[in-house]
Specification:
With 209 residues, the protein is an alpha/beta fold. 44% of the residues lie in helices and 9% in strands. The longest helix is centred in the middle third of the chain and has 16 residues. The chain is globular.
């Protein structure tokens, strides 16, 4: 396995890629090989890829013969985000391969990927959530400006999905949090979903060099 550094945006991404790496390659990723440029509990964000820590990690890894993989959210404009991130390579003289979540072509984020790998048996939960959002869009609160309601973020949807499936104990509640999730739990997630094939190919092709 080639020496590597995978840089992601935040704690949720870090935990997902630790579990997904283990699923693909049958072993844990080397300690410290999957990181994000923010502090623990904080989202790194694509701008923090410019931080001294992130740039230093990539340069050091390249100097040691390794490969850097940057896996960030596409957000609302895939090509603009791709251009912004690739510009960092020239600005700071670093080398990395880039993948934009959820699938390297569509707008979105980690949460969009997660929604597409939910265990099919649990789809009724997501159907209920969709109905919930549709009902919220119909509500008008006269005292609110504007009177329409704010639809909960996608992060809230994933949080709620897990909360419905896990128990009420404190230990179970902890498993809902970004850094504690178990993406290898086949009752909740399908890491062999066809939706992940593009991401799998990116990882395998780069790390098996």
């Amino acid at each position: 396995m080639k020496r590597f550094q995978i840089i992601v945006e935040g704690d949720a991404d870090k935990k997902f890629f630790e579990d997904y790496y283990h699923h693909i390659f049958g072993e844990k990723a080397p300690k410290g090989s999957i990181t994000h440029p923010g502090k623990d509990g904080d989202t790194g964000g694509y701008q923090k890829l410019k931080s001294e820590d992130a740039i230093g990690v990539m340069r050091q890894n390249t100097d040691m013969g390794g490969i850097n993989l940057v896996i960030f959210d596409a957000d609302e404009d895939t090509e603009s985000r791709r251009a912004e991130l690739l510009a960092i390579k020239e600005e700071f003289g670093v080398e990395f391969e880039l993948f934009l979540l959820p699938n390297n072509k569509d707008v979105g984020a980690l949460e969009d990927l997660l929604e597409n790998i939910i265990n099919p048996n649990n789809q009724p939960v997501m159907v209920c959530w969709q109905t919930y959002e549709e009902k919220l869009r119909e509500v008008r609160i006269p005292s609110k400006t504007p009177p329409t309601l704010t639809i909960p973020a996608k992060k809230t949807k994933i949080y709620a999905y897990l909360e419905t499936l896990l128990g009420k104990s404190r230990s179970q509640k902890k498993l809902i949090k970004d850094a504690n999730r178990n993406y290898k739990n086949t009752q909740h997630w399908n890491l062999d979903a066809e939706y992940l094939e593009t991401l799998k190919g990116f990882l395998v092709n780069n790390l098996n060099q």
